[in-house]
Amino acid sequence: MRALPLLSLLLGSSLTVQALAANSSPEASEWLNKLARAEQAQSYQGAFVYERNGSFSTHDIWHRVQDGKVSERLLQLDGSAQEIVRVDGKVQCVSGDLASGVGTPPDSAPRVLDPLKLMSWYDLSVAGKSRVAGRDAVIVTLTPRDQHRYAFELHLDRRSGLPLRSLMLNDKGQLLERFQMTRLDTETLPSDADLTASAACKPVERGASGAAVAVAGWRSDWLPPGFELVNSAQRRDPSSKRTVSSLMYDDGLARFSVFLEPIGNESGVDTRAQLGPTVAVSRRLNTPKGKVMVTVVGEIPLGTAERVALSMRAQDVQARQ
In the CATH scheme, what is the homologous superfamily, with its name and number, of domain 7-203? Predict the structure, then answer.
């Protein structure tokens, strides 16, 4: 479950748009280009508020672009002292509840925020202007074209293109998640000390992984349109001593992960839960490899997550539920 908003899910590297979908605005696409360029070129520090499921938390953030390297540190200021440090999008260390989460925290880069690709699944438009953290902003909306993803409303800083506010909304227009800057300083370069992790931040161990390669012989018979496999990994569960496979899927903006764990003769429990935008669906499957617990975790609707879980199959062999 995500405890800190992974800003890089909204930020990408340089991109080119050659054509525009009929229902999308060229101006909105230009603003997403500016957002992407800002991430790769703009250093900043500040504070933000994160809200989901009616609960709020406050955080400090330091983001430095120097000598072609992007370093970022986020620190939660209230509740448990959660911390995460990333370099070029790769998680270096985590603390608090993040350190004991399901699997390894996903690396959020490299990725390309491609408006042309997003236009296949979202309608992009400029919805007006606002003021956030004392800075003028333009509002860009991303409205999904199907029921398998959520809508976004981005308030981008007119001067830098950085996100000042991000809202995630369900199909009824209800707020699922809010990220909002309360202070943004683009003039002061974060120091080495600012970006140095505390002693409580535990280094991340990475297992074998491969982009777009389904580990352990797993595939999905069905995926929401536009989602592609972008990463896969295996890890050894310290308690059960079993190998857990994970697959990450991405549509250019939204992401979800599938975890597959052998359960032997254990019964396991089918579950479905939602906390703000994040859903978790677990389903038992009988496969030629034995009984497996499939868990889908991500920011997609419950029905979509359940359909993905039930579609998982042993590679090259038809699984049976």
Answer: Lipoprotein localisation LolA/LolB/LppX (2.50.20.10)
